[in-house]
Amino acid sequence: MTDFFTNPLIVKEMRERFRTPKTFWILGLYLLVMGAILLGFIFIQQMNSYISPGDNSELFVMLAVIQYGMICFIAPALSAGAISGERERQTLNILLTTHLSPAKIIMSKIVTSLAFIFLLVVTSLPLYSFVILYGGISPTQLLLLLLFFSVNIICFGSIGLFCSTWMKRTGVSTITAYGLSFFLVVGTGLVFIFLGMLIQQMYPEVYVDETVWNLLGIKLLAGMNPPYVLSEILGENIGPKLDWFMPVWAYFSIIYGVLSLILIAGSAYLLRPVRRTWFAWKK
User: Fold this and answer.
1) Is residue 240 part of a domain?
2) Does residue 30 sit within a domain?
3) Quick check: is 283 in a domain?
4) What is the pTM of this model?
5) CB burial class (10 A; 0-12, 13-18, 19+) of residue 52?
6) Domains contained in the chain, number
7) Which residue of 10, 80, 94, 251 sits 20 to 30 Å from the alpha carbon of 189, by its own alpha carbon?
């Protein structure tokens, strides 16, 4: 771990990213906007009716949805140019001649790319003190929300890094990363609804009411949809009620964690100057 955090690539990029005035201006503006939205929402609600602690959770839902939208928008873009940018600046070959292995280069890039968005999430946590006071939520929900955000940040960052390693141009890798992230956020939900309705229409005498939604394949697909998992954490119901064999947030974290590891390993393999295929190993 000491070698990892003294990695010269991490030290260099962290200094470049966090020692510029632009970083602090963006951080301050983000907290100002989030705080203004939160306090404005509280002010409007108090004008309409008196708010007592624990009466509603609209503040919690609103803040969580805004922050998740920010994660979906920023996380893929931060890592989509990590490797392709080096290639376009013609510094990738020089980087590969250092003592850093491709795996260390990939891990360094994803750490430095996503450090800023993790900083945004962590610095916004004090805003949730207002939510705990007025929103009627528990600290457990807040911890689960933080875990949900972290899993999504790592997964979207891994998608952007894989596209950046696979494709030569930053513009193409960014568009592809946004497309794949859009499929995970929106596409899995649409496929879940489409398959459920299709099976229900094909076998109406077998599947009545909501029975079809508890089929194993349909249920597992629902657990991969971030908005559905977010609604379960927030205590809101945006879809059919499903009977889970484990907490849905745990299933979601396992699936997206494995997906992130596969993408990071694939990025390290694609970055290797000389790749051994399975046929080469057999010889």
Assistant:
1) yes
2) yes
3) no
4) 0.86
5) exposed
6) 1
7) 80
If DSSP states are collapsed to H, E and C, what string results for 202-260?
HCCCCCCCCHHHHCHHHHHHHHCCHHHHHHHHHCCCCCCCCCCCCCHHHHHHHHHHHHH
What digits encode the pLDDT tens for the residues 10-69? 888 788 777 878 788 888 888 888 888 888 877 776 766 655 555 557 778 888 888 898
Give the domain range for residue 180: 2-272
The contacts of residue 35 (CB under 8 Å, 6+ apart) are 127
d(CA 22, CA 180): 29
